């Protein structure tokens, strides 16, 4: 049976990620919405705690965690859309009862789902003043054909 660490190590071996922090940094850099990544970690004292984003840096590499008996129970992917006070629905990916391939697939599917929701929220709210002629009216959709912002909208 695979332990959580075998799963993590094998699932991300091809990407060369050796720690949760590396996984988070690369996910963040390669995904337009810049998702947040969290990990539910069980310490040697059997205490469960969530680590998010930069906190993941305090955790050792997969191999070292395994050697120390620190367990990763699940990962969570989420995103905050800049300028809005809304968060995308975060997706939790369980490490129990899974295998490396399934886990890897589920993780990247979670990243895609969160990114899609984040870009949809962005498109619905980040129109520039010329998008659909809304002017400075707050929060309106982006006009994909808008010449002023090129269909990219503006940071609010
Ligand atoms: Zn525009």
Give an account of the 3D structure:
The chain is α+β, with helices and mostly antiparallel strands. It has two domains: 4-124, no CATH class; 126-156, no CATH class. Helices cover 35% and strands 15% of the residues. It contains four helices and four strands, in the order H-H-E-E-H-E-E-H. A four-stranded antiparallel sheet has the order 2-1-3-4, with helices on one face. Strand 1 and strand 2 (48-52) form a beta hairpin. The protein is elongated, with a radius of gyration of 19 Å. The model has no long low-confidence stretch (mean pLDDT 91). The structure holds zinc ion (ZN). Zinc ion binds next to loops.
Bound molecules: zinc ion
Low-confidence stretches: none
Percentage of residues in helical conformation:
25-40%
The number of E-state strands comes to 4
Strand ordering within the main sheet = 2-1-3-4
- Cα-to-Cα separation, first versus last residue: 49 Å
Give the overall shape: elongated
Mean pLDDT: 91
Q: Mind telling me the C-alpha Rg?
A: 19 Å
Integer tally of domains: 2
By helix and strand content, what is the structural category? alpha+beta
Tell me the β content: 15-25%
Largest sheet: 4 strands, antiparallel
Helix and strand topology:
Layout: H1 4-13, H2 20-30, E1 36-42, E2 48-52, H3 62-68, E3 71-78, E4 91-94, H4 100-125
Antiparallel strand pairs: 1-2, 1-3, 3-4
The structure holds zinc ion.
The site of zinc ion (ZN) has 8 residues, from loops.
């Amino acid at each position: 049976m695979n332990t959580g660490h075998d799963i993590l190590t094998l699932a991300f071996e091809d990407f060369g990620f050796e720690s949760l922090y590396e996984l988070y940094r690369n996910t963040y850099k390669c995904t337009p919405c810049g998702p947040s990544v969290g990990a539910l970690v069980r310490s040697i004292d059997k205490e469960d705690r969530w680590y998010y984003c930069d906190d993941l840096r305090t955790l050792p590499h997969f191999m070292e965690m395994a050697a120390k008996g620190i367990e990763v129970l699940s990962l969570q992917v989420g995103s905050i859309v800049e300028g809005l006070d809304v968060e995308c629905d975060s997706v939790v990916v369980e490490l129990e009862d899974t295998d490396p391939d399934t886990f890897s697939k589920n993780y990247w599917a979670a990243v895609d789902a969160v990114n899609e929701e984040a870009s949809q929220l962005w498109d619905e709210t980040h129109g520039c003043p010329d998008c659909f002629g809304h002017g400075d009216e707050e929060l309106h959709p982006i006009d994909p054909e808008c010449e002023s912002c090129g269909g990219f909208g503006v940071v609010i």
